[in-house]
Amino acid sequence: MTLRDDNRFTIGAVTNAEFKTLSTEKNGSTAGEVVSRLRDMMQRGELSPGDRLPPERDLAKMLGVSRPTLRAGIRSLATVGILVSKQGAGTFVADYAESPMLDSSPLQMLSDLHGFTSDEMFEARLALEMSIAGLAAERATSEQMTLMAEEITGMYASLADPTQYLVHDMQFHQTIAAASQNRILTALMNMVATILFDNRSKTVHRALDLKQSAEQHHNIYRAMRERDPEAARRAMHDHLIETQKAQRLEEKRSSKKD
Ligand SMILES: [Zn+2]
Question: Taking the CB of the first residue and of the last residue of the chain, which one, N or C, has fewer CB atoms within 10 A?
Answer without folding.
Answer: C
